[in-house]
Design brief:
Length: 285
């Protein structure tokens, strides 16, 4: 049975004019360094954004978690995470599903558990982190559209989001609320040793991710395109381009006509990032 008696997280009705967003630095770091994971009969992998993923049509949702837990049944489960976070509402729903599981839940942080993914990790009876991995916590992020009254309402709503997130961290770590709020205000990255010190993790495991296969499309060309799109989105996010606009820009780039008579020039990562820097500078001018 579950070792911890964690409280159910408060749920919210999603505002109609709200769009989830991940912090730009987190998204860019995750996109630039994808991690791998192994999978077993009682293992659930979260290697994607939380919520719908524009690029694959997937993303990890509460619906996927519910289906996986039903398939596993009343058995111990391991949840492997490498995610930049994403949709707060989906993250809270997934947390509640895991905290309600009737057997032991172990979370393994492979690369990062940031934002909404860190909320999910808090549902575990035991949190283990691989070397070089991070847990990242921050106040609620999102994009709200509307007039000044909408923004005033959003400010109050985001304050309630932050309080709910803090309650989850406090319940799992046993830390004082003021200490947790300070970590959230500072958008804090915690390596394994600090995460253990701050009570956000229980142990370091050198074997996590050691024998793994990449959880990306099997086709090499599709894998390359997916990584290029995610790295482009990460660069645009760091330039301050909102998520909805990033999608439109990347879709336009993907469908732009190309000169069939020109042979593709060889490019390395530096060329790609230089090109993206020029693009974002143009967009912001």
């Amino acid at each position: 049975m579950s070792l911890r008696k964690l409280p159910e997280a408060k749920t919210f009705q999603r505002p109609q004019n709200y769009q989830w967003e991940a912090p730009a630095d987190v998204l860019a770091k995750w996109a630039a360094s994808p991690m791998a994971a192994s999978e077993g009969a009682e293992t659930i992998t979260i290697l994607d954004v939380i919520g719908e993923d524009w690029w694959t049509g997937g993303g990890f949702t509460a619906k996927r978690m519910s289906a996986a837990l039903r398939s596993i049944g009343n058995k111990d489960v391991t949840v492997q995470i490498n995610s930049p976070g994403g949709d707060l509402f989906e993250g809270i729903a997934i947390y509640n599903l895991l905290r309600g599981h009737s057997a032991k839940v172990t979370v393994e942080v492979l690369g990062m558990a940031a934002s909404a993914a860190s909320i999910i990790a808090m549902a575990a009876d035991e949190i283990a982190m691989g070397r070089g991995s991070f847990i990242m916590v921050h106040n609620a992020w999102g994009v709200v559209m509307g007039n000044r009254e909408d923004f005033a309402e959003a400010a109050a709503l985001f304050e309630s989001f932050d309080a709910a997130i803090a309650d989850i961290y406090v319940a799992r770590t046993g830390r004082k609320l003021a200490d947790v709020q300070k970590l959230m205000d500072g958008e804090t990255f915690m390596d394994p040793q600090r995460a253990i010190t701050e009570k956000f993790a229980d142990r370091i495991d050198d074997e996590i991710g050691a024998s793994a296969s990449i959880d990306t499309p099997a086709d090499p060309e599709e894998r390359r395109r997916l990584m290029a799109r995610r790295q482009t989105e990460g660069a645009l996010a760091k330039a301050g381009i909102p998520r909805a606009h990033r999608g439109a820009i990347i879709n336009d780039l993907a469908t732009a006509p190309r000169d069939a008579g020109r042979a593709p020039a060889p490019r390395d990562a530096g060329d790609l990032m230089a090109g993206l820097a020029q693009l974002t500078a143009t967009l912001r001018s």
